[in-house]
Amino acid sequence: MIAADVPSLPAGDSPDLILVPATPHERIESIKLNSVAWKGPLNLESYIAREDHLYNQRLTRENLTCWILVDRNEPEGERTILSSCETYRKKALLAHNGTVEDVKTHGIGSVYCRPEFRGKGYAKRMLEELSRRLDTWQMEKESRGQSLFTILFSDIGKKFYAQFGWRPFQSSHMSLPAVAREVLNGAVENSKTRALLAEDIKNSMCDDVTLAKVRECMQIASQSPGAKIAIIPDFDHFIWHWAREEFYTEKLLAHRAPPTIKGAGDDQARVYCAWNRNFGETPENNVLYILRWVYDDPKSAAEEQVLIEAMAGILRRAQLEAHEWNMSKVEFWNPSPLLEKAVSLLDPKAELVHREESSIASLRWTGADQGLGKNVTWLLNEKFTWC
Ligand SMILES: CC(C)(COP(=O)(O)OP(=O)(O)OC[C@H]1O[C@@H](n2cnc3c(N)ncnc32)[C@H](O)[C@@H]1OP(=O)(O)O)[C@@H](O)C(=O)NCCC(=O)NCCS
To answer: Buried-most residue among 86, 140, 285, 334 (CB within 10 A)?
Structure first.
């Protein structure tokens, strides 16, 4: 139920409050409520359609739960939604003590409380309840029977979620402006960079060999002290991000064919990236995000130089793609030192930005309870993990 009498609302710490998975109807009601904050350039109908479209992707189908905080005394179908959020179960890897384990985790998103209900402790209560529920939620088939960690990306700074255990992790990025073809002056045409279609990303970034390398890296990482985790960068993640961009282009740029170039690569240097286009309220907020980079560590200084130049070529191609889709910039998260060097080839003044407010990668670790130590390292913490 959307309407509610504000003065008769329960307190945030009331024993009557309960966190439950929303019914399909309640899920739509909670989407309607949070549309005020997140529909961006879409109208309400399109925003609901977007959420349904994303819900039906392989990554999220069967893995997404919409949670609502309600008063247990209200009958299903008539419950007032006090606060809401979504969780997405994901495949992950855990490296510890010389072994690599396949595990499952949850990503949390769309944490919301409608404006007239704010400040009453509903979001806090929801997150306290959620942190406990996620320990075992949808984990029946997992060998440990429970999760070891959950993640979220905070848009409200580093403190709020930390009080419930979601600690801030490395949240940096670099960006480069969109650049028109004329300005590039043949730089893209003359480089070895190749535009990648979805199928190419599948073959060069999500193939068995590449995913086996992720496991090998985790295996090596498992030999040093402390647990390490990574979300598996499988093809379903990229499809999900592309479903999002294709939805927007269909709604907002109906005159144009949907974007088919989903990344760029250099076969000689063996470096590849996948991207997606994000549409904000205004063109300045349109960003081409590089979702993930794939390359092997160079074995010599000469190899390193070749790799850095290839990365720079790919970034140029991304800048051009951003321009062609009316994006203001290209951005990628937690760049490696090699990527930082590639950026400085293109713009020596570009800086690594450490975010303090938005998209703060946050992780709640419960592995200590399972003998895995107090600390955890988050590997492959790139944009593809965002939901
Ligand atoms: C953030 C939000 C969910 C909080 O809901 P709420 O029910 O009012 O929260 P609670 O009453 O449980 O807790 C209030 C606390 O929220 C924190 N908070 C709320 N908005 C915040 C913001 N924009 N930045 C930082 N902290 C914020 C405050 O620290 C406040 O703490 P205090 O009690 O010490 O003053 C709500 O403001 C909202 O829906 N905002 C719009 C959507 C959004 O930004 N969601 C978060 C996405 S990561």
So the answer is: 86
Ligand 1 mean position, distance from CA 121 (Å): 9
In this predicted structure, the answer to whether residue 230 has a pLDDT above a threshold of 60 is yes
Query: 171 CA distance to ligand 1 centroid (A)?
Result: 20
Q: Could you say which architecture CATH assigns to the domain 172-354?
A: 3-Layer(aba) Sandwich (3.40)
| pLDDT mean over 260-264 | 98
Q: How many CB atoms lie within 10 A of CB 99?
A: 11
In angstroms, rounded to a whole number, what is the distance separating the alpha carbons of residues 36 and 242?
24
Q: Where are the domains of the chain?
A: 6-170+359-385, 172-354
* Region 6-170+359-385: CATH code: 3.40.630.30
Quickly count: other Cβ atoms within 10 Å of residue 348's Cβ.
7
Which residue CA neighbors atom 29 of ligand 1 most closely?
Answer: 160
Q: Is the pTM of this model over 0.85?
A: yes
Decide whether any atom of ligand 1 lies within 6 Å of the 118 Cβ. Answer: yes
